[in-house]
Amino acid sequence: MGKTKIMIVDDHAMIREGLKKLIDMEDDLEVIATAGSGQEAIDNAIKLRPDIILMDISMPGINGIEAAKTIKKEMPCSRIIFLTIHDDRAYVNEALKLRPGGYILKDADSSVLTDAIRTVYKGGNYTYPAIYEPGEEYGQICELSTRELEVLDLLTRGLTNKEIAHKLLISEKTVKNHLYSIFKKLGVQDRTQAVLYAIKNNLN
């Protein structure tokens, strides 16, 4: 099994170097890139496709949250762990809108960081300290197939099953099957709840 590939994003060189040394000591982890700015993080993420991105929030220019937004648009299922000094609720809430894999304060022990990386890589969520309790919605969007995302998008535009079928060149029965699958994966009961979920999570 190959190593988990990690990118470290922080505007302080000493922090980047320290984290790299710490992570590279682990047999199953490998730092493949570092970035000192939000723009550099975006460029490296798209080019190198790391398994895990450790993202600082406070950076000049494009901050970590804005960089994460851009990365998420290009790579919806990317696994991002915010590693920051901020435990302010406003920062936390803004970061959590992006459904990150984790949110860890920089004063955490080194074992917390490596545990978080392994947990998030396997599809879990990790926060330290317990700033929030991750809801079931985290990661669900990534379970939707490309076709299901297309159906959901058309649903948010107010199209009927018949119109969606015509638009995607599929049968109404297939549309209904996709909707059933979407409802189940998102944990919603009907079209209205699915549309609200899509709007809340910027899927429309």
Q: Which strand order do you get reading across the main beta sheet?
A: 2-1-3-4-5-6
Rg, alpha carbons: 19 Å
Instruction: Report on the biggest sheet.
Output: 6 strands, parallel
**Shape category:** elongated
Question: If you average the pLDDT, what whole number results?
Answer: 85
- N- and C-termini, Cα separation: 37 Å
What is the H-and-E element order? EHEHEHEHEHEHHHH
What multimeric state do the chains show?
A: single chain
Number of strands: 6
* Model regions low in confidence, pLDDT < 50 over at least 5 residues: 132-139
Q: Roughly what percent helix?
A: 40-55%
Tell me the strand percentage band. Answer: 5-15%
What's the total helix number? 9
Structural category: alpha/beta
Task: Give an account of the 3D structure.
This protein is 48% helix and 15% strand. By secondary structure, it is α/β, with parallel strands linked by helices. It is elongated and about 60 Å long. It starts with a strand and ends with a helix. The model is unreliable at 132-139 (pLDDT under 50).
